[in-house]
Amino acid sequence: MIYLLLGLIIFFGVHAVRMLAPGYRLGQIEALGEGPWKGMYSAASIAGLALIIWGWMHFREYAPDIYFPPDWSRHIAAMLVLFASILIFAAYLPTGRIKAAVGHPFLLAVILWSIAHLVANGDLASVLVFGSFLIYAVWNRIAVAGRPEPAPVFVSVRGDILAIVMGLLAYVIFALWIHSWLFGVAPMG
Predict the structure, then answer these.
(1) Alpha-carbon span 101 to 161, nearest angstrom
(2) Alpha-carbon gap, residue 72 to 52, rounded angstroms
């Protein structure tokens, strides 16, 4: 459990800098340069994420159950993750109606992904991981709502079509093969 907690602290500590200490972040970018700052930020994020995954995989088999999700909750989780997959692609493709309507599709994707996993998993390890991501994504969504950023402007339907097709494809590949290989859990049964 210690590796899981350490990973959560590192990962979310790094990600919370912009919200908690924006002056520190800007000072580091000025002192180090944007490239080195992003490199250190990325290295710490990857290390934290690796510890989260490794800690979750090892703690999960011993973690006590906090609640017992019904079997049908897996279907709700699958649907939410499908929408999250599409939103992830909508965040980084040319702005379509999805991105323009949602504003911050990646954060909404993390919120849906977290809720999906909380609906389907009731062990302490999963609650710690997915609950942390949910709290962070909601907090970040509230924080970005207060920043002066221009609203995304609709560009074309092409971004939406690509997001849906790529999101569906990634969802199928991940659900059928990669998820069980990485995490030992087959979401499609």
Answers:
(1) 15
(2) 27
Rounded CA separation 93/158 (Å)? 9
Which of 89, 189, 84, 170 lies closest to 130 in space, CA to CA? 84
Residue 143 tokens read as 């924080």
Would you call 123 helix, strand, or coil by DSSP?
A: strand
Alpha helices by DSSP H, 146-184: 157-173, 179-183
Read off the pLDDT of each residue in 20-38 and give the average, rounded to a whole number.
87
Per-position DSSP letters for 35-104, written without gaps between them = HHHHHHHHHHHHHHHHHHHHHHHHHHTTPPBS----TTHHHHHHHHHHHHHHHHHHHHSSP-HHHHHHS-
Per-residue pLDDT reduced to its tens digit, 127-171: 999 999 999 999 999 988 877 777 677 778 999 999 999 999 999
Q: Do 140 and 83 meet the contact criterion of CB atoms below 8 Å apart?
A: no
